[in-house]
Amino acid sequence: MRTPAAYRSGRSQAAKCPPLVSSTHDRTSKKRAANSRGLTSPRALAGWLADRGLAPGGTAVRGADREAAIALRTALRQALAADAGTAPALRDHPLHLVPDTSGGLRIAAASGRPWLDAVLEAVATSVARGDWRRAKLCAAPDCRWAFHDVSRNGRGRWCAMEICGNRQKTRAYRERRHHDHPAGG
Question: Which residue intervals define the domain Zinc finger CGNR in the entry (predicted)?
Fold first, then answer.
């Protein structure tokens, strides 16, 4: 299967921060859980892949495929967190340059799983283009959702200012207020 257009386009959010990085099996937010249902079982992963155009509906997904997706997600999230232990996990995903149909070269992965290759190729292209530096983990300790920072200066800290940013700023305000005006004092 070819890399879906949503992953190839330089203007696509998916191309800049592939959704596998944010997919999870332990989210508590209803909104996020609905958007990230993908890695809870092989069947759920198959649906997640089909929803994103990474594999045709009804694609057989085995437990080993789910484990490979989780391993890649973990390695990419570690890379976003600047974890020095990321390199060994990423070595399991070699990339190559191959001729493109336009006469140029493109980055290609050959994991044996076309859908995983699409994610790997999107990440590699994002890194080469300089977009990966805008992929971040939410600074909220109870979130840590991966997101693409679209702020003008590239210093966004939260996946959603109206949710995580607001919670963090409210917590900080309450802590300052409690420190400045202790109860009973």
Answer: 134-177
